């Protein structure tokens, strides 16, 4: 009697092991935990880890990116907007206190537009020079009925330390203007008269060492001396009254900066030029009333053009273009009084990547395209919200996702494919699953088909044989690769 039994292949043993391991879990999830849980679990187990949960990281939705401006969010997490208080001292002196100031540091500034640029306040003045309105961001406009003509501005960091203070009279900077570092050390100190720097001026490093000392007379720089962090003389300059120019020379004798004050008494215009140690022009900027006005340019030490930008009252207004040392365009943007408005372009010759984006008054509006060695993305925005088709392609894994949006909500067809093989397909209405959702294996075998109605699961059908075959194929491919 032959008791020899035929040997079972390893493939059949592995198949039996997988069936015994996963089939009870599928039945348990289907009968006890509900169909929606089954849909999510099967989708996560079927795909490898690098393909799981793509959409929450690529496409914004309410669940992953809650809107902080809705009522419930405001109750639990109030907006961290700085508060603005206005009060009158001695019936004539206005004091504006703003806290907190969230930026890391305060830049050294001439003080002409201190309230507008540094504290980002907007002040309007009456014809007599009295304070009329003071606003900060979304804080309601506050009006003052007092008749004073002086304003004292005080700004503090979010930790409570003093950041800056300045005096204004009849709408112009008049008096002391100081800024401090976050550690409490003095950053700069200047004096103004009728909105023009007048008198001594100093600037310090964070550790307290003098960085720069200057002297102004009615807006004209008379002399200046700069120091290193260790206190050694770095450069010094002086004003030539006959030529109406100020020149600054380094310790080695090289020309560093030059200011031209020709016609300054009438036009208030200053031409600023900076130079490299080799004598090559580094920067050219015209100023009017202390604010950049007109076309400004920058160059590399080799003489190649680096940047061209147009200013209006100290703000970007028009086109801004930047080139690299090989004369290749790396950035081109358009601005309207300091805010992005129009087409913007970024590129990098190192990895041959580029980005094209459109703005409308500092809000993303129109098409957005980005391409680099890792991924390619094409999107559409409307008033800074996703609206239209979104396409994402991962070049390494060959994963392609297509999603349609309407007013920042998923609305329309959804597709996901891997290596040109359709993996998922469905549709959304107002950010909710609606209609038939289907899932396939990499070989095109149907694994799951579900029907939704406004986010509610109505019907679902699972194809366990195809699903287990897909798991087995992925398992064998992984072992072969290992």
Describe the protein in words:
The chain is of the alpha+beta class. The chain has 3 domains: 11-60 and 363-481, no CATH class; 79-206, no CATH class; 219-340, Outer Surface Protein A, domain 3 (Alpha-Beta Complex). The protein contains 7 helices and 37 strands. The chain has a 34-stranded mixed beta sheet that branches. A 3-stranded antiparallel beta sheet has the order 3-4-5. Helix 1 (10-33) packs antiparallel against helix 2 (35-46) and helix 1 (10-33) crosses helix 7. The longest helix is centred in the first third of the chain and has 24 residues, at 10-33. Mean pLDDT is 72; it is low at 31-148.
SSE layout:
Layout: H1 10-33, H2 35-46, H3 55-58, H4 71-76, E1 83-89, E2 93-101, H5 114-118, E3 121-125, E4 131-136, E5 139-143, E6 150-157, E7 162-169, E8 172-180, E9 186-193, E10 196-197, E11 199-204, E12 210-217, E13 220-227, E14 233-240, E15 245-250, E16 255-260, H6 264-267, E17 269-275, E18 281-288, E19 291-292, E20 294-299, E21 305-312, E22 315-323, E23 329-336, E24 339-340, E25 342-348, E26 353-360, E27 363-371, E28 375-382, E29 385-386, E30 388-394, E31 399-406, E32 409-418, E33 421-429, E34 432-433, E35 435-440, E36 446-453, E37 456-462, H7 464-481
Parallel strand pairs: 2-6
Antiparallel strand pairs: 1-2, 3-4, 4-5, 6-7, 7-8, 8-9, 9-10, 9-11, 11-12, 12-13, 13-14, 14-15, 15-16, 16-17, 17-18, 18-19, 18-20, 20-21, 21-22, 22-23, 23-24, 23-25, 25-26, 26-27, 27-28, 28-29, 28-30, 30-31, 31-32, 32-33, 33-34, 33-35, 35-36, 36-37
Helix pairs in contact: 1-2, 1-7
The overall pLDDT average reads 72
Proportion of helical residues: 10-25%
Beta-strand content estimate: over 45%
The separation of the N and C termini measures: 44 Å
Largest sheet: 34 strands, mixed
What does the overall shape look like?
elongated
Low-confidence stretches: 31-148
């Amino acid at each position: 009697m032959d008791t020899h039994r035929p040997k079972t292949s390893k493939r059949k043993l592995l198949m039996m092991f997988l069936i015994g391991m996963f089939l009870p879990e599928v039945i348990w999830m289907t009968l006890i935990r509900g169909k929606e849980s089954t849909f999510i679990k099967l989708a996560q187990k079927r795909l490898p880890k690098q393909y799981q949960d793509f959409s929450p990281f690529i496409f914004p939705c309410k669940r992953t990116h809650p809107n902080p401006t809705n009522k419930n969010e405001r109750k639990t997490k109030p907006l961290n907007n700085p508060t603005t208080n206005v009060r009158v001292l001695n019936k004539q002196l206005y004091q504006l206190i703003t806290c907190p100031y969230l930026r890391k540091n305060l830049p050294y500034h001439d003080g002409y537009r201190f309230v507008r640029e540094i504290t980002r306040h907007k002040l309007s003045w009456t014809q007599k020079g009295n304070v009329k309105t003071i606003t900060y961001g979304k804080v309601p406009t506050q009006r003052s009925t007092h008749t004073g003509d002086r304003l004292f501005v005080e700004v503090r960091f979010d930790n409570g330390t003093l950041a800056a203070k300045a005096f204004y009279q009849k709408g112009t900077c008049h008096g002391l203007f100081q800024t401090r570092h976050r550690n409490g050390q003095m950053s700069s100190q200047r004096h103004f008269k009728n909105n023009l720097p007048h008198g001594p001026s100093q600037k310090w490093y964070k550790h307290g060492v003098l960085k720069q000392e200057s002297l102004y007379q009615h807006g004209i720089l008379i002399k200046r001396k700069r120091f290193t962090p260790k206190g050694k003389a770095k450069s010094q300059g002086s004003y030539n009254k006959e030529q109406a120019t100020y020149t600054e020379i380094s310790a080695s004798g090289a020309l560093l900066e030059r200011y031209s004050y020709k016609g300054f008494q009438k036009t208030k215009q200053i031409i600023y030029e900076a130079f490299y140690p080799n004598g090559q022009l580094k920067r050219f900027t015209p100023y009017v009333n202390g604010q950049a006005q007109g076309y400004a340019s920058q160059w590399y030490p080799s003489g190649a053009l680096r940047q061209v930008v147009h200013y209006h009252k100290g703000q970007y207004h028009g086109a801004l273009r930047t080139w690299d040392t090989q004369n290749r365009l790396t950035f081109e943007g358009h601005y309207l009084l300091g805010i992005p408005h129009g087409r913007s372009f970024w590129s990098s010759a190192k990895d041959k990547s580029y980005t094209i984006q459109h703005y409308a008054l500092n809000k993303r509006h129109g098409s957005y395209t980005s391409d680099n060695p890792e991924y390619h993305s094409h999107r559409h925005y409307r008033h800074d919200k996703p609206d239209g088709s979104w396409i994402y392609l991962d070049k390494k894994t060959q994963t392609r996702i297509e999603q349609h949006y309407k007013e920042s909500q998923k609305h329309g067809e959804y597709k996901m494919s891997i290596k040109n093989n359709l993996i998922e397909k469905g549709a959304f209405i107002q950010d909710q699953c609606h209609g038939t959702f289907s899932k396939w294996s990499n070989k095109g075998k149907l694994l799951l088909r579900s029907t939704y109605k406004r986010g509610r699961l109505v019907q679902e059908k699972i194809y366990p044989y195809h699903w287990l075959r897909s798991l087995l194929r992925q398992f064998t491919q992984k072992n072969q690769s290992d």
